[in-house]
Design a protein that fits this description.
single chain, 248 residues, TIM Barrel, 12 helices, binds 1,3-dihydroxyacetonephosphate
Length: 248
């Protein structure tokens, strides 16, 4: 069974609502591809105008963050039902920027993964090692531990609908990309972990992305690897290059 490619932009904290609508218009014809799931993960305030702007196209809408309760006294937060009602399908969980800058730990990240599934949102679960761990040679153990913690009590059926993004922190926004072989090594290992934790069918179905300075120039080689089913793209998702990555 061939896995469907998924190319997702993570806009991070970029684009005002009107800039977001302009970017959707700029990318509209460039991201056409019926064989790829194309996703724009956008800031909360851009979700409604972006959902409107991409209506009728092949682009799916994603969010960058949410909180695990449905409603109530959680000042500043946004809930899964709110995202669903606004047209969101995908949700980024466990991005290294949320882990490092906003102190999200694996307990919260696991709760978010479970809540996303319970709410009908598709999680894009991020994992990845720091430069120190890469240099120390302990990155594989680190990533294996992240995956196990973050998927605690998640079922095999749910994992079949999961997207995992391998994002080495040293490659995010640095212009330094993991080589295709380095990315494949970890993405292949992640699939093996899913097989050990669940079964062969779950491992075959789970989609694994690479993220970290992916661009129009390096996308094709990264995406040619057997265990890399797509990309999670930061900087290059904010410009026309994103269309080239979708069609790489
Ligand atoms: P860059 O593509 O800007 O390196 O960002 C990657 C990323 O963090 C996507 O989530």
């Amino acid at each position: 069974m061939a896995r469907r490619r998924i190319i997702a932009g993570n806009w991070k904290m970029n684009k005002t609502p009107s800039e977001a609508v302009a970017l959707c218009a700029e990318l509209k014809d460039l991201v056409k591809n019926d064989d790829v799931d194309v996703v724009y993960c956008v800031p909360a305030i851009d979700i409604v105008p972006v959902a409107e702007a991409v209506k009728g196209s092949n682009v799916h809408v994603g969010a960058e963050n949410f909180y695990i309760e449905d409603k109530g006294a959680f000042t500043g937060e946004i809930s899964a039902p709110m995202l669903k009602d606004a047209g969101v399908e995908y949700i980024i969980i466990g991005h290294s920027e949320r882990r490092d800058i906003f102190s999200e730990n694996d307990v919260l990240i696991n709760a978010k993964v479970k809540k996303a599934f319970a709410s009908g949102l598709k999680p894009i679960l991020c994992c990845g090692e720091s430069l120190a761990l890469r240099k120390a040679g302990t990155y594989k153990e680190w990533i294996a531990r992240q995956i196990k913690w973050d998927l605690t009590d998640v079922t095999a059926d749910q994992v079949k609908g999961l997207v995992i993004a391998y994002e080495p922190i040293w490659a995010i926004g640095t212009g330094e990309t993991a080589t295709a072989d380095q990315a494949q090594e970890v993405c292949g290992m992640i699939r093996e972990i899913i097989k050990e934790l669940y079964d062969a069918a779950a491992a075959e179905a789970v989609r694994i992305q690479y993220g970290g300075s992916m661009n129009a120039g390096n996308a094709a080689e990264l995406l040619s690897k057997p265990d890399i089913d797509g990309g999670l793209i930061g900087g290059a998702s904010l410009k026309a290059d994103f269309g080239q990555i979708v069609n790489a």
